[in-house]
Specification:
mainly alpha; 150 residues; 7 helices; 2 domains; 0% strand; Hypothetical Protein Yqey, Chain: A, domain1; globular; Arc Repressor Mutant, subunit A
């Protein structure tokens, strides 16, 4: 069993003891999704699998939050924002600003990219080396902007 999954289970138990209903609900939702994947695929999940599931759930929550905010449903947006904060607590810190710029510049140099035709090569490196620490939407826009300058 993955260490991250154990951490999630322990956090669920602690939230239950603290009678934090909202946190328990969010953690149970995450644990249910992990269990569903284990049962469907008949295998134990690794930490990388758990990170992938958490990132997917985070993206879904952010999309829902944006839709609720656009529709002026602040009550539902607040629920999504809370779930986002709980899920983010189990993920490594995301690269931001200069750190992300430097990371993307390093990938461009490493791949030997000459222009937009090399976008796929750079994105492949980005997926493998930035796993879990990079917001792919932001990074993709940054890669595109830097490749346009070449």
């Amino acid at each position: 069993m993955s260490a991250l999954k154990d951490t999630l289970n322990q956090a669920t138990k602690e939230a239950m003891k603290a009678r934090d209903k909202d946190r328990v609900g969010t953690l149970r939702m995450v644990n249910a999704e992990l269990k569903r994947i284990e049962v469907d695929e008949r295998r134990d999940l690794t930490d990388e699998d758990v990170f992938t599931v958490l990132n997917k759930m985070l993206k879904q929550r952010k999309d829902a939050w944006q839709q609720f905010t656009d529709a002026s449903r602040e009550d539902l947006a607040a629920i999504e924002a809370y779930e986002i904060s709980v899920i983010e607590g189990f993920l490594p810190a995301q690269m931001e600003g200069d750190e992300l710029d430097d990371f993307v510049s390093g990938l461009l140099a490493k791949s030997g990219a000459q222009g937009m035709q090399d976008m796929g090569k750079v994105m492949g490196l980005l997926k493998s080396e930035g796993k879990g620490r990079v917001d792919m939407g932001k990074a993709s826009a940054l890669v595109k902007a830097q490749l346009d300058k070449l």
